[in-house]
Amino acid sequence: MKEDLEKVYQKVKPFVHRTPVLTSHLMDEIAGCHLFFKCENFQKMGAFKMRGAINAILNLSEEQKKKGVVTHSSGNFAQALSLAAKNLGIPAYIVMPNSAPQVKKAAVKTYGGKITECEPTLEAREKAATKIQQETGATFLHPSNNLDVILGQGTSAYELLQEQPDLDFVVTPVGGGGLIAGTALAVKHFGKNCKCVAGEPKATDDAFRSMQSGKIETNVSANTIADGLKTHLGDINFPIILKYVDQIILVSETEIIEALRLIWERMKIVVEPSSAVALAAVLNQKEKFKNKKVGIIISGGNVDLSKLPF
């Protein structure tokens, strides 16, 4: 797997930005540890998902590329797959729930993705994606439960550990599980006694419960400001998470908003609420991280400015 990650990194490198790692003395004081923010909000299309999307497409056969790709996503993977497909000159069919933020739909269209809207249920999303597959012959790429996608997402932590090889922890948010699984693999193979931790909203605590029960749990409702984290784990990423993730820390909506505000005010960068969940987790467990070197993956910056909580 170590060699796989290195190969994937070399493959995606020409198509993605090597995003900056930011630090802040003030944030270190607030958190009581040394923070290193890996800023995927500066990635192409504004989120880490560009990495997984481009890797998954690059691994398709020429025949598959001609027929294009299809996915279902409420936002960031929809944008990532659309842009990655555009860059490689292949069609991208995107199923989006009709409740997806307008700003994300507009971005998908800008990147050339062909949108099909559906009811905001997983069943409706999967049904619409299957129909497109049958009609076009496009290859379905899951936003998070696909090994090529997972390894692509892991290149963010790989870059971070190249720059800061002696981190004690790398913390990410967890939603569908692609980022945390890829990060956990990078931490396992390229960290030195480094642990992988995730933050998750209490309102969507399925990953936390899955870690406890040892099987994939789901949520009945998902009332959280972290709209990118409303998806469930999959059968490909969950075994990786179970094996290599040290802990999932639950945070409240208030804690997420406070962390979001801190990043906007103190670091002067635009991040989306899902990104703030990782910092919220560190602030929630200050004793665990005290005086440690902590990498935080800022997952994205695609935010609807008309819906900020402050």
Automatic annotation (TrEMBL):
Keywords: Pyridoxal phosphate. Its cofactor is pyridoxal 5'-phosphate. SUPFAM superfamilies: Tryptophan synthase beta subunit-like PLP-dependent enzymes. Residues 13-300 form the Tryptophan synthase beta chain-like PALP domain. InterPro entries: TrpB-like_PALP, TrpB-like_PALP_sf. It holds the Pfam family PALP. The keyword Ligase does not apply. This is Pyridoxal-phosphate dependent enzyme.
